């Protein structure tokens, strides 16, 4: 196959016409598939169903004798704190076990920084301007929180080791209104990149001008591997200890894609000082989170090792789907030289970069033919991908067969949009 | 028995010495009882234990076919919305089913009013001063939320029909910075008073100067009756409709004291316009609440009628405890003319008013002898009961035997503190 950029106008036109025919054939299939979000497939949810009656007949007492059925315990039952501390490589005293959503924790932490400030510092709302650094492409829901509070977002380009640390170090050390950064350090959403050791070390040794600068370390995919020999990122808190910067990091994780999205357990890890301060605020808003569900999770997974073992079952279901995506791109798109992508070794997404100016067109073509992708631009602050190039592929929910069909369509749409673009430029 | 106020100094001294002896005897029993919070007793929690495995083998699909195990559905599954709408006498479209805590909803609503304003109005944080009206005595955790945001609280005296509506109408109509009021309209915390029809009607017809004035209608005890023929307060939304004031009310309830505190389901009821606006904000902070737990609750209680039937079982356990409190007060304290109390027909508390200046002393005497009561002053904003008179009695958690013992001690402490006070004044 010839690269599209090397085709003559005539060849391109023929290519486009041929692709258009394929597209119309697909449209007539009346597909209806949603690949817009990183939703686990039903088969993955089935893995956790035995959790449903695991507390039957039990006393519902925590290991310290506390009756999980009643009021009390703000920061989580001891065995849940221990399990998640072991996953994240911190101490139980560094853990708060919340409710069902790590996004809700992030919002809460941001909202309190906004209204009450961080560790005794001035509330962020009192600044004329507050800025956040946003490695791009990134997670749309992170960006929505910033936008909601009117926080100015600054795009930070990323490569295969993580975000551009030179730029981050410069901005953070020079500007007191830069108050935070969003990071998905392991299997980034959507790039799938895991931060290199050097990048983690540079994060831990940041010297921010703002004493209330915080790294929002959203370790959502810390145990969500897709290979048999996964490599994990460095423990950020271990690195921070070497630099005395433990207060600079809030780490988040949840079991949303381990047990059940919406019915899992979410966790914050932070320095003792941050934990104490956050607990004071939380105590105003609630008497405590769902301890019975915490107990349910500990009884089912037992410990950190159990959580990791369970994730291997998810991998068995997920990995073939990622393979379908990569295989089809390799086969149908690679020879044409019109796009790039990253083969993720974990997480929930494959990040796809079309030719500049083609992402919106591709997503819209797919949609018209019945396949809903994450909106083009969604992976950038304000929904604005300056290159109109990045598309987040979420292969988890459809079956392998459905996904295969959807990817065929996706490849056709890539070809069509790219041919249109090149022809227009001729 | 003679009234204490009618005793001579000598009689009082003898009374005090005799009571002191009884107190010391009690101290030697080394009691250890916590009556500080409205916690259900273990026997009440046992009532809901069959809920633990009620989803076993089920598909976990909501009635509309939605898989409750996965992401999605911000405002609650349809059957949960319906059940709670029926309890509160509104339509499902007026309901948002949240997570495990109505307090957390109240905090969230307040926090968003603070940062983003209410229905397009200016954020409350942009005012130099924001005021809330607080019927007293009231619920300490309501007051803590106001204090956290630096909202000035204005005490509103209450009587057996509810709060002083003349005062409320005046303050609300004159002062644009009065942005809200805390109400526990049915079986108030702690007075046990249910608002009269006239009071509810006057609330619904308030003409606030501030268009973003909101009534925080915390209907925590709407189905928590202690008699066989309970009388319910008027439906505030029905009354609001007559006045076109539906947007003025946020109503809250939860199953914390129906199923499990901390593992129940909490609900907001509001006008369609408020619901839509709140959902926009919520969508920034979370993808959704715990739908599996919502389903668990609906499968167990079935419907509003089922919820009400279940509460009768709670009543069987709770009512005898309230009787113990009232009986002992009637027997030991009434003849002495040194205190007042309200016999609640529902809810979780009995409000006790000692002689002025005695509440702290009574609570401290009880504590020294091993019975922890809610802190004196806790029922007032800033923990400041100007009369130092009100004590909230929470009889639910101890067994009848323990409670009986605790009330004996409580009565002794009342007598002792009152005698001390009267002697000091001689």
Give a concise summary.
The structure is a homodimer of 426-residue chains. By secondary structure, chain A is of the alpha/beta class.
Class based on secondary structure composition and strand pairing of chain A: alpha/beta
What is the oligomeric state here?
A: homodimer
CATH class of the largest domain in chain A: Alpha Beta
Give the mean pLDDT of chain A: 96
Molecular structure report:
The structure is a homodimer of 426-residue chains. Chain A is of the alpha/beta class. Chain A has 2 domains: 4-44 and 309-425, Aspartate Aminotransferase, domain 1; 61-302, Aspartate Aminotransferase, domain 2 (3-Layer(aba) Sandwich), CATH 3.40.640.10. Chain A is 41% helix and 14% strand. The first copy, chain A, contains 13 helices and 13 strands. Chain A has helices spanning 9-27, 42-46, 78-88, 102-116, 140-148, 165-174, 197-204, 236-243, 272-285, 291-301, 304-333, 359-368, 400-425; strands at 33-35, 95-97, 131-136, 152-159, 162-163, 178-183, 214-218, 249-254, 266-269, 339-341, 350-354, 371-373, 390-393. An 8-stranded mixed β-sheet of chain A has the order 2-9-8-7-6-3-4-5, with helices on both faces. Chain A has a 3-stranded antiparallel β-sheet with strand order 10-11-13, with helices on one face. In chain A, strands 1-12 form a two-stranded parallel ribbon. In chain A, helix 3 packs across helix 11 (304-333), helix 4 packs parallel to helix 5 (140-148) and helix 11 (304-333) crosses helix 13. Chain A is globular. Chains A and B meet through helix 4, helix 5, helix 9 and helix 10 of A and helix 4, helix 5, helix 9 and helix 10 of B.
């Amino acid at each position: 196959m010839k690269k599209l950029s090397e085709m003559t106008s005539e060849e391109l036109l023929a290519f486009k016409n041929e692709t258009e025919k394929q597209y119309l054939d697909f449209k007539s299939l009346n597909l209806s598939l949603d690949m817009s979000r990183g939703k686990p497939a039903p088969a993955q949810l089935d893995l956790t169903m035995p959790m449903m009656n695991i507390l039957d007949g039990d006393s519902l007492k925590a290991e310290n004798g506390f009756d999980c059925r009643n009021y009390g315990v703000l920061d989580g039952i001891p065995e849940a704190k221990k399990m998640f501390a072991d996953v994240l490589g911190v101490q139980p005293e560094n853990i708060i076990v919340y409710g069902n959503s790590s996004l809700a924790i992030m919002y809460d932490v941001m909202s309190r920084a906004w209204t009450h400030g961080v560790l005794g510092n001035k509330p962020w709302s009192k600044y004329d301007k507050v800025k956040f650094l946003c490695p791009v492409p990134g997670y749309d829901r992170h960006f929505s929180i910033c936008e909601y509070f009117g926080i100015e977002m600054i795009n930070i380009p990323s490569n295969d080791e993580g975000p551009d640390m030179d730029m981050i170090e410069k901005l953070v050390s020079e500007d007191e209104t830069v108050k935070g950064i969003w990071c998905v350090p392991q299997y980034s959403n959507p790039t799938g990149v895991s931060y290199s050791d050097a990048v983690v070390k540079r994060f831990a040794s940041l010297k921010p001008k703002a004493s209330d600068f915080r790294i929002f370390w959203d370790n959502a995919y810390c145990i969500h591997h897709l290979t048999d020999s996964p490599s994990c990122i460095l423990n950020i808190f271990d690195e921070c200890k070497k630099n005395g910067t433990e207060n600079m990091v809030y780490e988040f994780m949840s079991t949303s894609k381990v047990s059940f999205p919406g019915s899992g357990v979410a966790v914050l890890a932070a320095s003792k000082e941050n934990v104490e301060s956050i607990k004071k605020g939380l105590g105003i808003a609630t008497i405590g989170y769902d301890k019975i569900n915490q107990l349910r999770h500990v009884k089912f997974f037992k410990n950190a090792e159990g959580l990791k073992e369970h994730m291997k079952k998810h991998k068995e279901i997920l990995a073939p789907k990622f393979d379908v995506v990569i295989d089809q791109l390799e086969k149908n798109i690679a020879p044409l030289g019109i796009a790039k992508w990253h083969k993720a070794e974990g997480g929930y997404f494959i990040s796809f970069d079309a030719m500049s100016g083609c992402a919106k067109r591709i997503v819209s073509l797919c949609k018209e033919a019945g396949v809903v992708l994450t909106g083009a631009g969604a992976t950038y602050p304000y929904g604005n991908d300056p290159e109109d190039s990045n598309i987040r592929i979420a292969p988890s929910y459809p079956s392998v067969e459905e996904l295969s069909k959807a990817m065929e369509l996706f490849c056709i749409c890539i070809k069509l949009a790219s041919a249109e673009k090149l022809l227009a430029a001729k």
